[in-house]
Specification:
alpha/beta, 8-stranded parallel β-sheet, two-stranded antiparallel sheet, 11 helices, 10 strands, globular
Length: 312
C-alpha cells in the first residue's frame, strides 16, 4: 500500500494523505511523437475506386493499422502504461459488408495481438465517436449506433478481450432529456455490447448526477470525467466537494470497484475551457483514489510522464 503526504491547501501536485495504491494512467489512441500513428480513409476517397481497388485499399489499410496497433502495445509496455484506448477509427468501414469481410482475413493477427495484450496485463478500452447516439428520437440513428457498437465489440472479441467492464466501450448520453429512452435501448442491446458499455457525463447534455442515475437504472458502469463535471456545474476548482463525491458514487456502478476508470483533462486557455490543454497541471485531490485514469491531454505520453514524475 502506497501513501502520499500532500498539502491540503495546495491544488497542484501535493495534496492530502490518501491510503491507496497509485492510479494507472492511460494513453489515448496516439502518441505526441510519431511513434504511434494510424492511417485513415475517407468515404469520398473509397467511392472513387472500383470494387477491386476498394478491397485492395482496405486490406492494406487494415494490415498497416494492425501493425501500428502492435507498435502501440509495445510502446505502452516500454513506458509502463497499463491502460490504452484504441482509436475508434482503427478499421474504417468495418461496419459495412466489404470491411467486415476483409477484417475476417486478419483474425489470426488480431488474436496474436490480443494474446500479447492479455499476457502483458494491458487494459484495452474504446471510445466510439460522436455518431453513436443511443438516446436519439430517430430510430435509424439508434440502429446505426448499435451497428457501430457491434463492430467495436466484434473487434474486441477478435482481440480476445473480455465481454465485461474490464474492456469498456465508453459513450456519452447523447440527446438530452431522453433518459428513459436511453435506458430502454441499453436494456435491449446485444450481450457483446451491453456487457462492455459504459456511460460518461458530458459538459452540456447530461450532468454527472444524471448519468449516474441512468447507469444505476441500466446497470452499466459510469466513467466520471471531472473536467466535464466542473464545466457543466460552473465550478472553479477540481477540489469542489462534489468532484470527490461523484468519484465515489461512480465507483458504486462498477461490478469490480478496482476497475473504475475516470477521465481528466485541463482547459486549454482557462479553467473551464472545454478544449484540452497540452499537459495536465491541475489534478483533483480525489483522483488519488481513482484506480484508472485516462489522460486526455494533447501531449499524450509527455503528459503521462510528467504526471508520473511530479504527481505520483
Amino acid at each position: 500500500m502506497i501513501t502520499k503526504q500532500m498539502d491540503s491547501t495546495d491544488n497542484s501536485y501535493s495534496n492530502t494523505t490518501l491510503n491507496t495504491t497509485l492510479p494507472e494512467l492511460g494513453l489515448v489512441c496516439i502518441t505526441a511523437s510519431e511513434t504511434v500513428r494510424f492511417r485513415a480513409l475517407t468515404r469520398k476517397r473509397l467511392l472513387q475506386l472500383n470494387d477491386v481497388e476498394q478491397q485492395e485499399v482496405l486490406r492494406k489499410l487494415y494490415s498497416d493499422n494492425l501493425q501500428r496497433l502492435g507498435i502501440a502495445i509495445e510502446f505502452c509496455l516500454a513506458e509502463n502504461i497499463k491502460l490504452y484506448r484504441i482509436t475508434s477509427k482503427l478499421f474504417p468501414f468495418a461496419d459495412e459488408p466489404l470491411g467486415e469481410a476483409i477484417l475476417d482475413e486478419f483474425k489470426e493477427t488480431l488474436a496474436q495481438i490480443g494474446d500479447r495484450v492479455n499476457e502483458s496485463g494491458i487494459r484495452l478500452v474504446i471510445h466510439p465517436d460522436q455518431f453513436v447516439v443511443l438516446s436519439s428520437e430517430k430510430p435509424e440513428v439508434i440502429e446505426n449506433s448499435i451497428k457501430i457498437l457491434e463492430t467495436h465489440a466484434r473487434t474486441l472479441d477478435l482481440l480476445k478481450q473480455s465481454q465485461s467492464a474490464w474492456n469498456p466501450m465508453e459513450i456519452h448520453g447523447g440527446k438530452s432529456n431522453q433518459s428513459e429512452r436511453l435506458i430502454k435501448v441499453i436494456e435491449g442491446l446485444p450481450q457483446p455490447i451491453r456487457s462492455r458499455l459504459a456511460l460518461e457525463n458530458d459538459e452540456y447534455a447530461y450532468s454527472a448526477s444524471e448519468i449516474l442515475d441512468i447507469c444505476k437504472a441500466a446497470n452499466v458502469p459510469m466513467v466520471f470525467d471531472a473536467h466535464h463535471h466542473v464545466i457543466h456545474e460552473g465550478l472553479s476548482s477540481y477540489d469542489d466537494p462534489s468532484v470527490g463525491e461523484m468519484l465515489l458514487a461512480a465507483r458504486s456502478t462498477w461490478p469490480v470497484p478496482e476497475w473504475q476508470m475516470v477521465h481528466i483533462s485541463n482547459g486549454q486557455e482557462f479553467f473551464g475551457d472545454k478544449r484540452h490543454s497540452d499537459l495536465i497541471t491541475d489534478m483533483p485531490i480525489s483522483y488519488r483514489q481513482a484506480p484508472w485514469i485516462e489522460i486526455e491531454a494533447k501531449q499524450k505520453e509527455i503528459a503521462i510522464a510528467k504526471l508520473k514524475k511530479e504527481w505520483l
